[in-house]
Amino acid sequence: MISLEVNGKKYEVEASPDVPLLWVIREQLGLTGTKYSCGVAQCGACTVHIDGKAQKSCQIPVNDAQGKKITTIEGIPDEHPVKRAWISGNVPQCGYCQPGQVMTAIALLSENPRPTDADIDRSMSGTLCRCGTYQRIRRAIHKASVMMAEAMPEKVEPEKIKPKRKRAKRKKHKSGRPKGGSQ
């Protein structure tokens, strides 16, 4: 028997020690929010948190997860800022990759509460979206970051919050028309 703690609940499962954690989560525990896609840890659809770190469960032997805290998408409350930002930003298209995207985004924000676009791209690069909603994903992560900062201001100091960039105004020629280009 293998002992697991998933979403705060303890389970005893009968499985071969080398069976991927993903299959135990889906088949034995019935938590089907964590998806199977590539099976080789390249797409991120199977991402869960193991002791707070985003891990691809299709390549983690269940024995290696024993004694660790595992969180699946079902263990993330609906009111979590990342889930709320995802919904308000209409991020999902087909939705298949979204559990992995959300889990990866939450792990990113727990390590880096104010990520740059480059930080987001780097962190999210291992979680593929067939529909190409990457711009919406990035916007949702920025929005969740702000929501989290507003909810816990002591964790993110205001001076560390980067202001939105303002567009540069074009200088006007003395005739009143913008300089440059043909008029």
Indicate the topology.
Elements: E1 2-6, E2 9-13, H1 21-28, E3 47-50, E4 53-56, H2 62-65, E5 69-71, H3 81-88, H4 98-111, H5 117-124, H6 134-151
Parallel strand pairs: 1-5
Antiparallel strand pairs: 1-2, 3-4, 3-5
| Proportion of beta-strand residues | 5-15%
The CATH homologous superfamily of the largest domain corresponds to [2Fe-2S]-binding domain
Name the structural class.
alpha+beta
Terminal-residue CA separation: 78 Å
Order of helices and strands: EEHEEHEHHHH
Report the average pLDDT across residues: 89
Briefly, what CATH class of the largest domain?
Answer: Mainly Alpha
Give the strand tally: 5
Radius of gyration: 21 Å
Largest sheet: 5 strands, mixed
CATH topology of the largest domain: DNA polymerase, domain 1
* Low-pLDDT residue spans: 158-164
Widest sheet: strand order?
A: 2-1-5-3-4
Tell me which CATH architecture of the largest domain applies here: Orthogonal Bundle
The helix content, as a percent range, equals 25-40%
